[in-house]
Amino acid sequence: MLGFSGAQGFFVILVVMNNKSIVIFDGSNFYYKLKSLNLSHTSQFDYHRFALHLNQSQQLVAAYYCIGKIKAAQEDIKARTMMAKQQSLATRLQKEGFVIQYGFLLKTDSHYKEKGVDIQIAVDLMRGAYRNEYNSVYLVSSDSDLVPAIREVQSVGKHVVYVGFEHKPSFALLKTARESRLLTKNDLLPFFPPATSS
């Protein structure tokens, strides 16, 4: 059980069991949605308090942050800077009780493509459902590849809440999940330090 029951303190998935819940953040998806709202300093976003905010009526027992792991050659300064920032965020989240789960980044030409993160999230959803670890899940990810997993856990009686962004919702997830919450910029600003939220 994680220390998420206090008053402190959420592109993720939040899951609930006899009023118990877990949260799963699709890290990269969440990052780019924040950037599209012109929200900078995303590493300072208060994931822990955001998770508790979403989860006001249940007991949060687990939190997951899923991301493609950055690897860099010694001579690749830009990639090594990105890797250091990712490691710093992961360390902070681990201290707050999050489980960090990595996919990988596949380089094609000059671009990187994330692989395996959606599979990890789907596994977390279905494993928890079959082990009866939760009753409801708040999914904060707009990845339509998760639709089959959502349908599966709902077929065994779990409640899925899709948490997305009002300006860029996933219509597939809106249609599939039993409940949806769409976030605006104003919903997110309280979870940034005042000096970085503008």
Structure explained in plain terms:
By secondary structure, this protein is α/β, with parallel strands linked by helices. The protein has one domain: 3-Layer(aba) Sandwich (Rossmann fold), CATH 3.40.50.1010. Helix content is 35%, strand content 27%. It contains seven helices and eight strands, in the order ββααβαββαβαβαβα. Strands 1, 2, 3, 4, 5, 6, 7 and 8 form an eight-stranded mixed β-sheet that branches. β1 and β2 form a beta hairpin. α4 runs parallel beside α5. The longest helix has 19 residues. The chain is globular.
Number of strands: 8
Q: What oligomeric state is this?
A: single chain
Query: What is the level-2 CATH architecture name?
Result: 3-Layer(aba) Sandwich
By helix and strand content, what is the structural category? alpha/beta
Shape verdict: globular
Percent helix, as a range, is 25-40%
| Through-space gap between termini | 35 Å
| Continuous helix count | 7
Mean of the pLDDT scores?
84
Q: Helices and strands, in N-to-C order?
A: EEHHEHEEHEHEHEH
How many separate structural domains? Answer: 1
CATH topology: Rossmann fold
Tell me briefly what this model is.
The chain is α/β, with parallel strands linked by helices and 198 residues long. It is 35% helix and 27% strand. It has a single domain (13-196), classed as 5'-nuclease (Rossmann fold).
